[in-house]
Amino acid sequence: MSESFTAKQVAEHKDVDKGLYIIIDSGVYSLESFVDEHPGGAKILKRVGGKDASKQFWKYHNEGVLKKYGPKLKVGDLKEEAKL
Ligand code: HEM
């Protein structure tokens, strides 16, 4: 049931108006409803809109954060070809 996105499609959702998507590992997360409640601030999330933010994410968070918020925010996965 989960949707599949290319990196290009994710890149088109790079601000709150178009949907703020970010990639963490192979998952695609939609954060426009979350930016204003992000404990780390809205600004830092907006900066990585449309991009792969795995490196930044794992620097500041642990698995528990994805477990808690992932089900609410995840909209799909990166297509195989885009993972390379
Ligand atoms: C699905 C995406 C994200 C979720 C659900 C999320 C959630 C959270 C939560 C719950 C916290 C509070 C601290 C904790 O419980 O660990 C936090 C803090 C923080 N987040 Fe995020 N975050 C996300 C993405 C990001 C990204 C992509 C960045 C960086 C570009 C970022 C940067 C930070 C920073 C700097 C803090 C503060 C850390 C501190 O005060 O020590 N977050 N985030």
TrEMBL record:
Keywords: Heme, Iron, Metal-binding. It comes from the Eukaryota. Pfam families: Cyt-b5. InterPro entries: Cyt_B5-like_heme/steroid-bd (IPR001199), Cyt_B5-like_heme/steroid_sf (IPR036400), Cyt_B5_heme-BS (IPR018506), Cytochrome_b5 (IPR050668). The keyword Methyltransferase does not apply. GO terms for molecular function: heme binding; metal ion binding. Residues 2-79 form the Cytochrome b5 heme-binding domain. Transmembrane segments: none annotated. GO terms for cellular component: membrane. Belongs to the cytochrome b5 family. This is Cytochrome b5 heme-binding domain-containing protein. The lineage of its organism: Eukaryota, Fungi, Dikarya, Ascomycota, Pezizomycotina.
